[in-house]
Amino acid sequence: MVTAASVGEPEGGKRVPKTVKPMGKGLSPLTLIWVDGGFDGEPFMEWVMNFCRWIIQVVLRAEQTRSFVLLKKRWVVEPTLGWLMGCGRLVRDYELLPETSETFIYIAMIRIMVRRLA
Fold first, then answer.
1. Domain range annotation of the chain
2. Which residues of the chain have pLDDT under 50?
3. Which of 30, 33, 37, 115 is the most exposed place for a label (fewest CB within 10 A)?
């Protein structure tokens, strides 16, 4: 889900469960959601627990660390972002609407998946 840059992480984070939860039985049962430090905070965690019955786990790097440290849970997302950067239109965000950016991400992922199937 793509939101405008003016939307804060906790507010944008609430939009995802509101979109995903109505899908209901079409999804595998989610129980644990990993998030980065921008979603840290009791109000957001309580909202997700009450709305979806999901557990939020914040994945942070150690504060004393100054260099790159591999965080296994966050590394799940990094290769996907790298694949998307292979699509020239997504390297820079020139779109006026977040919906347009989201559409180009869908198109890029379809292209990646079709090339893997071929």
1. 1-61, 77-118
2. none
3. 115
